[in-house]
# Entry
Amino acid sequence: MKAVGLTHYLPVENTDAFLDVVLDKPSPEGHDILVAVKAVAVNPVDTKVRAPKDKVEDQPRIIGYDASGVVEAVGPDVTLFKPGDAVYYAGDITRSGTNAEFHLVDERIAGHKPTSLNYAQAAALPLTTITAYEAFFDRLGIDRDGANAGETILIIGAGGGVGSIGIQLAKLAGLTVIATASRPETTQWVKDLGATHVVNHRKDMVAQVRALGLQHVDHIAILNDMRHWETAVELIRPQGGIVSIDDTDLPMPMGGMKTKAASFHWAFMFARSMHQTPDMVEQHNLLSYVADKIDAGQIKTTMSKVLSPINAANMREAHRLVETGQAKGKIVIEGF
# Structure
């Protein structure tokens, strides 16, 4: 089978950063489904895994954590899918990745592809959807069905992949969304996705939020940079919650969190598959829930650019675009 792999961890400008390779087609066992991959998307985690380091792989390593495709075969323990089913999923960071013509994934972290989307549109969604859903509904405890309607959420770094789906999930739950963006194109992007207010995270966010008539916000998601930590602590309401997807070595003073009895949470969508948690199937359930909302016209794809075909040259270009930090939504590569 065709695949895009790497043996050395190189700057994306290096033509050897990715290689077109041919590998044996895998076979499913246990809860695995074998997927004929139709499209993949590139996330910041892809670029972090590929980032330059002094390491050499004996055999080409296949990365990639977003895909859509068709089930080719199933393992003996599979109950959720059958051959011919269209699926979308974000994979498992501990296993071989999605940048291959055929890919094995545990059925419990895959969902049925939204029928109203093509494969490229669907591939843009899984990793960011799982991240935003778990951050808002599992970590912050927001009720997806509207019990927290009318509350406010500040989404810092809302123009990226997680923020783009996060705005929509928050609006669907009835929240007032304050999104941050710093460029005209991303400001318009988040408005089009349903943000109620937009503030600039490169300027004084506290002043901007309070100019909206809000002393505090109920929930905060930090999706781009933990340098905004002290701003978030200042803006969170007493007994509110902050969630972040960005690991950091920066200081995180906790005094303000203590006096507000506020909570802080990390969101890491690979935790369930990495640790084989008993509730792994919740990722299947949430992807199916979102697929239903998409097919009902309540959520739209966050795809912003498509490259074709899936090969080393286009993979380098997709990684380059993500590494600029200027991309809005998701960049997808389709077709082998």
The chain has two domains: 2-125+271-334, 134-266. The first strand starts at residue 2 and ends at 9.
